[in-house]
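Retry 2 of 3 after timeout on previous attempt. Resubmitting structure tokens to design endpoint.
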């Protein structure tokens, strides 16, 4: 028999009853039932109940065992007594009567429990992550992550993509987030950077003549943590394609993403064909470019109903050009208690309040201060436009849309959540397209890039080169060939058809006020490569961590990452970042100038 086990703790079935077996694992839970000890023995593969009674020669040693001790047990597999079977366990028909125990690894007092899924302070969970990972839910999340990556890799290869690895030590990039810098010992005063993404390398792979690239790429950014963003590092499905249009990228990527959500979504509905939603439409309908389409609420512009109305606050706001009033319909929210609760929520969000109208039985034209100010005719116009009636409500935001949209979007989400309108049993995916190439910088009174400066404008080369740099109205109307994938309100990835024409790139940066020498200094290598015969190319990079987070039903990326950092980008388990010795600093020609405490 093998030194440690003949079976894993998830392997025994009825067919094994009567066999002498050997198991090794952790003492998950120990129960004393009137002098009979029941131990749930756990390993990576599952749980098996093992039993010792006073007749067993191993009983005295069994009495000394404690939670999370690692042991080997020998014994006979037998059928559990009638009524004690556990249908929740694959091994639930079988138990092992212990004949011999060997303690392989005793455990000191635990700083946190492994049995059960109770909440525990995050700093303790991260400091003792190896214990946290023994817990069933987190263990399963990590295994799910591995299966998802395997599936993605197989789907990409089946789609004709080739897997390459790009450098980890590279040059510092002037765009995006802060770089993590690595000092060079043999080049004093110079630094490598960890890649924020393989962006320039994957474009160079296309310039080099390879056609379809992908990798499961680690990315490093020195930025603050959020629930949907890990500090320090994260992984993405990085891909690039040559000689493609935007639709070609969609046709290659959409089946991979949809297939993964269908495979691991536990039967939840997955969008069969991702709709294309223009950026401007997403902002006006949903108040965000990351819309949660499980929420059926669609906002509408009701400015004309309030223009010149008796509600003077909105009427005066609308006298300024460009201002608007948007409505957030609330089906089923037609009572004062809910409307007042939303008003209080808005005040908690730093707003003066949230105007509303609600409709109830026997009250003509709607209820609430706004209804009384604008009268039944205008109130009916709103109800008709939004398809509302008795039992419903509507909330309003007013001002400059680019300012109030940051509140309107969350208000839509809050209404949907409070009224139970969000379909939680679905994965609703979409493409957000037609991002603006430029935006107006009010502070500096100039045109700026809106999103990714290296995207191709959605104009012909000739049309773009002929643009008048002073025609702001025309420039602000230009769309870039950029696109995002969004799922349930979470941005999974951004991508673009790249600007592969140096003359177009120079013009694009000149419009945004960048001198050509700046472009040459910061991106000279890429510019030179593009000038030596570059194919049209484009790609995207869906976030692996975010995909797994959604599939696992988690709200924080740390629940799907093996060894995450905390919010302050600290690895509490390994003690990073840490101080280094004077000798190490001397070898790197570095002298520290620390901030004064």
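Retry 2 succeeded. Sequence:
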């Amino acid at each position: 028999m093998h030194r440690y086990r003949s079976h894993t703790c998830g392997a025994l079935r009825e067919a094994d009853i009567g066999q002498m077996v050997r198991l090794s694992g952790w003492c998950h839970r120990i129960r004393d039932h009137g002098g009979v000890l029941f131990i749930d023995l756990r390993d990576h593969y599952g749980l098996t109940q093992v039993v010792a009674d006073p007749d067993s020669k191993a009983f005295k040693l069994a009495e000394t065992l404690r939670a999370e001790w690692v042991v080997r047990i020998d014994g006979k597999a037998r059928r559990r007594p009638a009524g004690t079977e556990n249908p929740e366990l694959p091994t639930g028909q079988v138990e092992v009567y212990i004949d011999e125990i060997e303690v392989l690894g005793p455990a000191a007092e635990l700083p946190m429990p492994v049995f059960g899924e109770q909440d525990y302070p995050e700093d303790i969970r991260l400091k003792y992550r190896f214990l946290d990972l023994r817990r069933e839910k987190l263990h399963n999340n990590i295994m799910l992550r591995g299966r998802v990556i395997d599936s993605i890799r197989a789907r990409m290869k089946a789609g004709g993509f080739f897997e390459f690895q790009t450098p980890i030590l590279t040059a510092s990039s002037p765009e995006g987030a802060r770089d993590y810098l690595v000092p060079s010992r043999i080049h004093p005063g110079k630094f490598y950077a960890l890649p924020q993404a393989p962006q320039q390398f994957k474009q160079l792979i296309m310039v080099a003549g390879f056609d379809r690239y992908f990798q499961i790429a680690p990315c490093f950014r020195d930025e603050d943590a959020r629930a949907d963003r890990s500090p320090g590092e994260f992984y993405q499905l990085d891909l690039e394609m040559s000689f493609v249009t935007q639709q070609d990228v969609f046709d290659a990527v959409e089946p991979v993403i949809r297939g993964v959500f269908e495979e691991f979504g536990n039967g939840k509905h997955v969008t069969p064909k991702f709709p294309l939603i223009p950026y401007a439409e997403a902002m006006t309908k949903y108040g965000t470019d990351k819309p949660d389409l499980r929420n059926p609420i669609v906002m509408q512009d009701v400015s004309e109903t309030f223009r010149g109305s008796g509600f003077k606050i909105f009427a005066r706001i609308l006298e300024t050009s460009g201002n608007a009033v948007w409505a957030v319909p609330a089906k089923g929210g037609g009572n004062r208690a809910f409307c007042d609760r939303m008003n209080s929520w808005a005040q908690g969000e730093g707003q003066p309040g949230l105007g509303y109208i609600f409709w109830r039985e026997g009250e003509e034209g709607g209820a609430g201060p706004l209804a009384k100010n604008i009268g039944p005719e205008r109130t009916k116009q709103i109800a008709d436009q939004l398809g509302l009636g008795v039992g419903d409500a509507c909330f309003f935001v007013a001002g400059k849309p680019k300012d109030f949209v940051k509140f309107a979007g969350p208000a839509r989400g809050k209404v949907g959540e409070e009224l139970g309108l969000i379909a939680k049993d679905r994965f609703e995916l979409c493409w957000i397209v037609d991002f603006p190439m430029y935006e107006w910088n009010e502070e500096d009174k100039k045109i700026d890039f809106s999103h990714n400066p290296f995207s191709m404008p959605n104009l012909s080369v000739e049309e773009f080169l002929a643009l008048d740099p002073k025609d702001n109205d025309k420039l602000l109307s230009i769309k870039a060939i950029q696109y995002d994938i969004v799922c349930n309100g979470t941005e999974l990835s951004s991508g673009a058809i790249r600007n592969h024409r140096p003359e177009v790139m120079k013009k694009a940066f000149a419009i945004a006020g960048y001198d050509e020498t700046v472009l040459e200094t910061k991106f000279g290598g890429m510019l030179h490569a593009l000038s030596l015969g570059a194919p049209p190319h484009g790609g995207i990079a869906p976030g692996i961590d975010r995909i797994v987070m959604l599939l696992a039903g988690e709200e924080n990326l740390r629940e799907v990452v093996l060894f995450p950092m905390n919010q302050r980008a600290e690895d509490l388990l390994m003690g990073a970042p840490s101080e280094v010795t004077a000798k190490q600093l001397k070898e790197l020609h570095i002298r520290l100038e620390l901030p004064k405490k």
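Attempt log closed. The CA atoms of residues 143 and 167 lie 27 Å apart.
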